From TrEMBL:
One of its GO terms (biological process) is endosomal transport. InterPro entries: EGF_Rcpt_Signaling_Reg, FkbM_mtfrase, SAM-dependent_MTases_sf. It comes from the Eukaryota. This is Methyltransferase FkbM domain-containing protein. It comes from Daphnia pulex. It holds the Pfam family Methyltransf_21. GO terms for cellular component: endoplasmic reticulum membrane; Golgi apparatus; late endosome membrane; plasma membrane. Residues 115-273 form the Methyltransferase FkbM domain.
Length: 297
């Protein structure tokens, strides 16, 4: 089946807009002045992934950011290091997304992207042309460990992370299915659905269902990853996660993140294109078109 994407463009944002979604941020729990005493919310000895998951720590919690910085994010390759590409002669490997976005941004140079579902960093990459030809940098997110290994060898001039994007406004551990390298994705599990389920139940479910191709994977909210690398202004966000796009978009505190343009795959999302469009329009985005993939990732 062809891969359809809706691609809303940010047109305007009103500072008085109050989101209905609760994003689990530090200021919601401790007030806007919490940063003045931020050290009391961070204990290096207790700051572990297990602790962050069990406590459902806020997206901007110092422990969450430290975990990402210390364990889950790799620095961009220096500009003077050559790329290692399979098809270096292919200028733009995307299916038209990069051209459409750059048309809106008037061939903006030195921009910043986030590509989730970055695969090997080259095949059908929506951001490689921007990086190679227009001096962009960004964040490449790929949870499939085999694809990430290839991505890491490309010498991309962007941050990379093997974590997945959380479908909740806090860190979670999920089961990740890599049996199909082109369509790896989070596995729906009973422990990922009810908000009230205990962490011990979650861990038990993960243990029982883990196999060679289905393994545990750590996920963080997009906002947490952005704060960890010091970027909250994004020129282009590419989201392709085989059905969890709507849930991920719901975790973003839109008043705290500036995203100019984005493309979102929707044909695997159970909520459908209309729900994703509605969510984006409520956050002051405008849909400008659809892409039809002629090739398959």
């Amino acid at each position: 089946m062809d891969n359809l994407q809706n691609t809303p463009q940010l047109q305007s944002h009103h500072a008085t807009y109050e989101p209905k979604t609760k994003y689990n941020l530090m200021e919601e729990s401790y007030g806007k002045k919490w940063k003045h005493a931020s050290e009391k919310y961070y204990d290096p000895e207790s700051c572990t992934v297990e602790f962050a998951n069990a406590q459902k720590l806020q997206q901007d919690h110092p422990c969450v950011l430290r975990l990402i910085q210390d364990i889950y994010v790799r620095q961009p390759s220096p500009r003077n290091i050559p790329y290692k590409l399979v098809e270096p002669e292919l200028v733009d490997p995307s299916d038209g997304q990069s051209k459409g976005i750059l048309r809106l941004l008037r061939n903006h140079t030195n921009g910043f992207f986030v590509e989730c579902g970055a695969f090997d960093g080259e095949y059908l990459s929506n951001t490689l042309y921007m990086e190679r030809s227009l001096n962009w940098t960004g964040l490449l997110i790929e949870a499939d460990q085999n694809a990430f290994h290839k991505l890491s060898s490309r010498n991309r001039k962007a941050y990379t992370t093997p974590a997945c994007l959380s479908t909740k406004p806090y860190p979670i551990q999920v089961l990740y299915n890599t049996s199909d390298s082109l369509y790896s994705a989070i596995v729906e599990r009973d422990g990922d659905k009810p908000e009230h389920e205990s962490s011990s139940q979650n861990e038990e479910t993960l243990t029982v269902n883990t196999t060679v191709n289905v393994h545990k994977k750590q996920c963080f909210p997009l906002y947490s990853l952005l704060l960890a690398i010091g970027r909250t202004e994004i020129d282009y966000f590419s989201l392709d996660v085989e059905g969890f796009e709507y849930k991920i978009l719901q975790t973003i505190p839109w008043l705290k993140v500036g995203i100019k343009t984005l493309t979102v795959e929707w044909n695997h999302a159970p909520e459908g294109e209309a729900a994703i469009t509605g969510l984006m329009e409520r956050n002051k985005f405008v849909k400008f078109g659809l892409f039809v993939h002629r090739r398959h990732r």
